[in-house]
Request: fold
Amino acid sequence: MEHKFERETGTLRVQMPKELDHHSAETLRQETDALLIKYPVRSIVFDFQDTVFMDSSGIGVILGRCRNLKFAGGQALAVHLNQQIQKIFQVSGLHKIIEVML
Amino acid sequence: MKKEMKMEFSSQSENEGFARVAVGAFIAGLNPTVDELADIKTAVSEAVTNAIIHGYDQKEGKVWITCEIDGQDVEICVIDNGKGISDIDKAREPLYTTKPDLERSGMGFTFMEAFMDEVWVASAVNQGTRVTMKKRIERA
Reply:
């Protein structure tokens, strides 16, 4: 998984997988959690630029990371959502929990 | 004449992608829109993931998918012979999950219902579960 950490702003940008399902969610969870331990993260950006598919398994991963970060006073953002992923965010209510920038 | 397809695969998470792509390819002849195709793939992915995580508790098993095209109507069944669902109404409630420890969102059935026209669930404890989903593909 590709990622970038900007030390100045404390922003961790995570590149979401091409297909975000139960299979890929497990790796994403482990890798993201390792980065959250490694860096002093104040905000996390989930970048969906390369993502063409997402199902409800992706919601759990995003929600879990959001919760941990918000509990510590941090922020979460989702960017570059295609139409299908926007729909997933809307149906699940995820767009009310995490800030979305297309 | 109805068109039919049947497939069997092992309950491994790698096969989730394979299953939804195979169903997508099978219905391609109906010329679904990008949205309709995405809806069907998502619904299939949810049902197959349920079979793997809940039906078989991520242990070894087989998952079957049958797909039938009748005119513009698509009917998809996802079947497992895993542990079954004791309370189907409860399982279908949004946000209800028996596996919060795995960070399951409890949105699987909600997604199937949102993205398909009709969803039926038949299940018997220790025998298995059959999810039947229907969607009409609008004529282009």
Summary: Strands of chain A lie at 3-6, 11-15, 19-20, 43-47, 53-54, 75-79, 99-101. Chain A has a mean pLDDT of 93. Chain A has one domain: 3-101. Chain A has three helices and seven strands.
